[in-house]
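User: I'm writing a short report section on ligand binding and want a predicted complex to refer to. Could you take this sequence and zinc ion and write out the structure as tokens? A short remark afterwards would be nice.
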Amino acid sequence: MSVIHILQAELELTGPGAVAAPEAHTVPSALRPDLPLARDGWGNPHLPATSLTGSLRHHTPQHRRQALFGDIVKTTGSSPRNTRDETTAIASTVRVLGTRLTLPDAPVTERRRTAIDRHRAAAKATTLHDRELLPPGTELTLWLRIDTTTTASPLIDEVIELLADWRPRIGGGRTTGYGRAELITVHHRAIDLTTPDGLHHWLTTGGPALIDGHATVVHDRAQRQGGAPDEPYLFGTALHFRIADALHIGTGTSAERPGRQSGLTQILRDHDNTPIIPGSSWKGVLRARVEFILRSTGIGDVCASVEDATSGSCGTCVVCETFGWSERPGPAANNTEPPKTVGARGRLLLADSPVRGGEVRIRNHVAIDRVFGGARDEALYTEETVEDGHLTLHLRHDKPVADLIRAALILALTDLADGVTGIGGGTTRGYGTLTAEPATADWLSAEHTWAVTTLRAHLDTTSSVSTPATQEAPA
Ligand SMILES: [Zn+2]
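Assistant: Sure. The structure tokens for the complex follow:
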């Protein structure tokens, strides 16, 4: 162990990132977000190295994980006198020294979200929460140390290769598009302790200064034509939509307007001030519609993930498996044992969709007095809407998705394109209707037959054992 290799990897967030602090699980207050960013002792956003190590370890091929990143091995005592289970820790060859976050010239933002009650079509009580987000463009530096016996080692090449096609995803909210990052550069500095120079460098410097002028660039994003490829699209392509009327996805806050009594209900914008449909809205709308299709046709035993206080996501049905679920499980859909774990991440990844070419307008609304027929006092409210824009839905997956869900998603997207269901606020007032762009409309009608056939095939196999349990009112 005479050569110390230091690798410095620089990453950049390509979208907002959400690295929640452990104290996020305490009681929220009005002054603090429910899911604050993890911060160091000086109040600067901080990313624990463990967050990245886990992602890098997961990216390592299965058979090399133990050799590179250590493991905990459970063994059963083999001798007759000792039959107790023992755990043996295997130390990690790659040591993660630390991380540093460099924020761009953009503020940390907050995003508020809630769940929608499927019957009332209004926000569900006790589900509102805020999350602090790192801005896109945030740079993240990660230092790794590997000790070897020689200057040139296949181990170093292996780790560099591993980093080069790593698709780092940082922090929480992966399935709603948070934490996407790209590797920019990797610097390598070999410190040979058998040479005077190496020893001098090792003994007289420390921390980030260990990467000095002798370090070599072993990976550069500019030379590799982009980083590792993204997760595959679920349907092989992105889907394009246009806003048919107007769209309002609120931030949950309103801006004061000087000289006016009522505030302005603002729409959600990204860091470039472009109106967006957040990944979480796509996920909510698509999940609700998929659940509705599967339940009302009686095909699958699927739960109503957001309904009333007594029910919740079951954690066992095919929708929970695909979209993920969290604790507070309701009764299982098919009256089986409740699940043992507290939640699981979904298989679908939905990113934010910026609305391009749209126009932001301010609309006034007022309630009408039912007795006098005129505008009611103090019932005027004003909200921003975005009209006439076009947008792209990036629907990706990182694990296999069942054909049943694919088929239901195609029908759900068709409903969205036909204006049967809308997205965002005020859908009963004509907001939130989308139409498909020609290419997407053609694709949807081409896939429609397959989707219906697939659902019908499932119905034939399940109809002998179960009947439609619940009749739902039309959405
Ligand atoms: Zn479920």
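A remark for your report: The first helix runs from residue 49 to 59. The chain has eight helices and 25 strands.
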